Amino acid sequence: MRTNLMVTGVAGFVGCHLAHAAIDQGFRVVGIDSFAYSGLRENLVDLAGRERFDFEEADIRDGAAMRRILDRRRPDIVLNLAAQTHVDHSNRDGTPFFDVNVTGCATLLEAFRSHLAAAGGPTRASLFIQVSTDEVFGPRSPEEPADTEAAYRPTSPYAASKAGADLAVLSMHRTHGLPVAITYCTNNFGPRQFPEKLIPLVVARALDGERIPIYGDGGQRRDWLHVADHCAGLLAVAGRGRPGDRYLFAGGNTLDNLSVVRMICDHLDATSPRPDGRPYRDQIRHVADRAGHDPCYALDDSDTRRRLGWSARADFAAALAETVDWYVANPDWRRIAAARQVGPAARDARRLRGTAP
Questions:
Q1: Model confidence at 86: pLDDT above 80
Q2: Molecular function (GO) terms listed (predicted)?
């Protein structure tokens, strides 16, 4: 059994959940994070006391640091989750996205290649897993989803930076025989997601009595995958994945954004009603759509389900309610995470603030 994992971006949303899930399955995990943006020390509190978990504060763009950690910790598998991910930020300035997502990934790949060479070459357990996104395939409808043979058609700087990283990963496999795999997923949701993302953003705005912004008419459709199901898929790749392969993970829950926001508002009405008794839907405001906003993404994960024996299990309505309840029950985490938001997106958020109608 493969027992040693290195998880970059471990203090982020998916990273911290993945570390817990991996330890539960018997893996030993070394987590890497630089706390540069969305990585929160608070996400590591529960991990710090767990056996089989070690942490190294480092940046994946620091090749010397990555080589030292790899040589000391000797992981069998590297899962690269470290990334800048917010489309709005990338639309305003894509430079940090190409720096972290492409340069960082390439630096980590070279460090892993150097480590394996020094160790006498890869073993049957060796694998570099690049965690990508459905957005690299561009707009897709549920009727014509992307599959494992789909070409890349990114439409945002964020998606282009992830596509560039993926191509770097594939080049190392084809040129040097580095054992790699790439995974793609649809929109994740669950506890501890950075508050710039739709679900935690809506919860925070609703509870704070602020306007809840909806891009355009809110008709953009996304498929929602619970973070626990995503982590189960990643660990299935860690256990049974084959070098050179691509794996797609979908939740099977395609809804338009406005419907999701209304579900959140209705749940809060039932569990945390406004003091004035009015519905949270009253706080919804439609704002100008963002540039190049893709109408829909979709993945066909049938091949992945067949090969890995994986499938998404979460019931969306129930999991969404549990997720909203977690944010309501953890105001200190919400406050700390919100304080970390910087840049134009945070300024836009402040402009949209106002008392509830």
A1: no
A2: GDP-mannose 4,6-dehydratase activity
Q: Which domains does the chain have, with CATH numbers?
A: 4-190+224-249 (3.40.50.720)
Q: What percent of the chain has pLDDT over 70?
A: 95
Active site residue 135: yes
Q: Which of 37, 158, 247, 297 is catalytic?
A: 158
Cα 184 from Cα 135, distance rounded (Å): 9
pLDDT in tens, 315-325: 999 999 999 99
Q: What is the pTM of this model?
A: 0.94
* pLDDT band, residue 350 (cuts 50/70/90): very low
Active site residue 37: no
Q: What is the mean pLDDT of residues 112-129?
A: 96
Instruction: Examine the residue annotation and report whether 51 is marked as an active-site residue of this protein.
Output: no
Mean pLDDT of the chain: 93
Residue of 56, 59, 76, 135 marked active site: 135
Contact (CB, 8 A) for 332 and 186: no
Residue type, 139: P
Catalytic pick from 76, 134, 196, 294? 134
Q: Smallest Cα–Cα separation from 94: which of 103, 43, 139?
A: 103
